[in-house]
Design brief:
Helix content is 27%, strand content 33%. The strands form 2 sheets. It has a 6-stranded mixed sheet with strand order 4-3-2-5-6-7, with helices on both faces. It has a 3-stranded antiparallel sheet with strand order 1-9-8. Helix 4 links the parallel strand 5 (98-106) and strand 6 (126-134). The longest helix has 18 residues, at 17-34. Helix 2 crosses helix 3. It is an alpha/beta fold and 183 residues long. The chain is globular. It is built from 5 helices and 9 strands. The two termini are 19 Å apart. It binds inosinic acid and magnesium ion. Inosinic acid (IMP) is lined by residues 48, 73-74, 80, 103, 105-111, 138, 156-158, 162-163. Magnesium ion is lined by residues 45, 48-49, 103-104.
Amino acid sequence: MDSADVESDLVNILFTEEQIHEKLAEMAKQIEADYDGQDLLMVGVLRGAVMVMADLARALNRHVEMDWMAVSSYGSGTKSSGVVRILKDLDTDISGRHVLVVDEIIDTGLTLSWLVSNLSSRNPASVAIATLLRKPEAQAMPVSVKYVGWDIPNEFVVGYGLDYQERYRNLRSIHTLAPHVYS
Ligand code: IMP
Ligand code: MG
């Protein structure tokens, strides 16, 4: 795929690289204040959260540990299946730990509400969620999200870790995808 192909697939830039970094710096300040004096284990949800985790963790001016989980909730399309499976579990024992789950987007909230109840059963000191983006449906979910970058409309977005059929994750900014790509 050449760069012209990539560009014709994308409509609006929703958030530029600069806006994303400003937002993550704000979230990092809040996290530093809230977890002051406490240990912090950040759990990134593979694969989409890789960019958010890398930049959010580096925006934190404190010690932090990172671990990763992989769960499946989406097939290769744009609709949530509602079925969650653990593909890769944590390497860390989280009992007594303060856990911050880091994700790039919450759509229906099904994946994260399932993940939070799974992690909560392992006796952590606390479990909270940080997400860069949140879609409208998730706001109605019982799952409480402690840190949200932006609430966005119900459109399919790609870039900065977000994929459509494994493509576009490597873009530095976040874009809405042209409907011709997935219709
Ligand atoms: P949920 O269970 O419906 O909240 O789905 C969460 C997961 O679906 C996210 O972690 C993403 O991997 C994927 N997802 C949801 N919306 C989008 C989107 O607009 N673009 C790319 N991936 C998305
Ligand atoms: Mg994800």
